[in-house]
Amino acid sequence: xxxxxxxxxxxxxxxxxxxxxxxxxxxxxxxxxxxxxxxxxxxxxxxxxxxxxxxxxxxxxxxxxxxxxxxxxxxxxxxxxxxxxxxxxxxxxxxxxxxxxxxxxxxxxxxxxxxxxxxxxxxxxxxxxxxxxxxxxxxxxxxxxxxxxxxxxxxxxxxxxxxxxxxxxxxxxxxxxxxxxxxxxxxxxxxxxxxxxxxxxxxxxxxxxxxxxxxxxxxxxxxxxxxxxxxxxxxxxxxxxxxxxxxxxxxxxxxxxxxxxxxxxxxxxxxxxxxxxxxxxxxxxxxxxxxxxxxxxxxxxxxxxxxxxxxxxxxxxxxxxxxxxxxxxxxxxxxxxxxxxxxxxxxxxxxxxxxxxxxxxxxxxxxxxxxxxxxxxxxxxxxxxxxxxxxxxxxxxxxxxxxxxxxxxxxxxxxxxxxxxxxxxxxxxxxxxxxxxxxxxxxxxxxxxxxxxxxxxxxxxxxxxxxxxxxxxxxxxxxxxxxxxxxxxxxxxxxxxxxxxxxxxxxxxxxxxxxxxxxxxxxxxxxxxxxxxxxxxxxxxxxxxxxxxxxxxxxxxxxxxxxxxxxxxxxxxxxxxxxxxxxxxxxxxxx
Length: 591
Hints:
alpha/beta; 591 residues; single chain; eight-stranded mixed sheet
C-alpha cells in the first residue's frame, strides 16, 4: 500500500494542481538546473541596447524623448529589422521628441510598451490610454485587472506589447503571459509583438497563448549588447545592427527595472524580454528543444523505483534500502536535468517526493516488521537455547554465530525406556500427555543448564553444550542437566505409580569431543545441530544403558573434561560402529 501511495503521489504531482509544497520544490529544483546551465553562444539575432550606468554618466536620466527617438531612428537607419522599447511614457514630455516617437510608432517597425496589472486591486489602475490589441474571445490569454499605458500621443501606435509581469508566490518571475485579455481585447507581450511585427517570418502554429515559462537558457553575456550612448555617438557599425531585432531598455539600478528570476535576485527586466524573444525565435526556426514526455518519464521512473524497493525492502537492511533510495534520488536528479529543458510543464520534484515517502514511511515500516519477526524468531529460539545464551549471542560481535565450525561439545541423548509398551494401552489423549510431560522433564534441565536443544526424537531429545557459544564447563553442565533429568523423571514415575500406572525410566548417554556445530540444511529448511564422532558415541551410550542398572552412561571424553563430578567405571564394551571396546562410566550422585 505504501508503494501504491508513493506512485499516486507522483501521478498527483504530474497531473494534479500545481500548488503548495510540490510547486515550491519543483520550482526550486528547476531554478538550480537553470543556474547549472552554462551560457550558450552569442545570439546574433537579437541586439540588446542598454541604457546602463555608462550611458547615464554621459547622458543623465531622465532622458528627453528626443534622445530616445534618436536612438530608435539610428537603429532603424543601420538596418535593424525592428525595435521594441521597454520604457513606458505615461505622460507627455518634450513636444518634439513625443511627436517623433508618435510618427515612428505609427509608421515604423517600432513596438511601444504598455503594462497590464494582473493583481485585483481595490481601485484598479487606469493610467494613460491603451493602444493595440485585437477584439476577440479570451482563449488562453491571461485576464488583467488594470493597466498603465502611454500618453495620448502614442495611442496611434501600430505595434504595442505588454511588459506587465506576474511573479510566482515567492516573488520570482518564471513565466510571462504571452497574451493578455482585458475588456474584450487580446494584447501580446512585448517579445511576441516584436516577433509578429518584424521577424520577417510568420509565427508558427502552436505558440503558447497563456503563461509561458521563460526559457532562461542563457545569461546576459549570451546576447549581443550595446550601450545606448554608443548608439547616440555613432559607435556601432551597420554590421552590429543590420538584420537584428532590437530591444531597448535599462539595466541601471538607479532606474529600478529589476526583478527576481532564477538567474538571480536582481535581474534586469530587459533580460527577461530578451530571453522570451530568444525562445520564440527558436520555436519559429524549429531549433527549440524537442518536446519530451516528462510526465510519462517521471511516472515510469517512480514505477521502477517502487517495484525495485518492493523487492528489496524485505531482503535488504534498513540502511541498505536507504542507500538504494538515496541513489535513486541522485539518478532522478541526473535524469530530470535534461528533461527539464525539453518539458517546461512536468514536475521535477514529484518522483523525489515519492522517494521521500518511501524513505520516511516504507523503510521504517519494513524495519518494524523485521523487528517483530526477529522477536518472534528469538522467542522461538529461546525454546531451544537457554535465554542467557540467546542474550550473549545478541551481545556478541560475531556477525554469524550459527555458521558451522569445529568446536568442543558435550552431547546428551536421553530416551524413555519401553515407550511403546508404556503408551500402547493408553487412550490417545493420555499417551500425548505422557509424552509431553516426559519431554518437559527432559527439556527444562537442559535449558536451565544453558544447553542447546538439538531436536526431539519422539520420546527423547538430543542436546549439547559448547555451541553456539563456547563454554569451558560444557561437560559439567551436561552432567548437571543429566542428574536433574533423572531426578525429575523419578518424581514423575512415582506419581504415575501412585495412580496405578507403569513406572518410567530414562536412559541417558553423554560424551564429549570435537564436533562440527552450526546451521545445516537447504534453502527450504535448516536446523542448528552438531555432527561428529562424539555425537554418535553419545547415542550408542544411551542404547548401552539398557544393559546396566544405571540411568546415565558417560563416555571417556566427558570423564576427561569434567571438573566437578566423580565417576564409577562400569567396564569396557564394544559399541556398534566402534573397532575397539570403550570404557563406560556412570556419574556418582552428589551426597
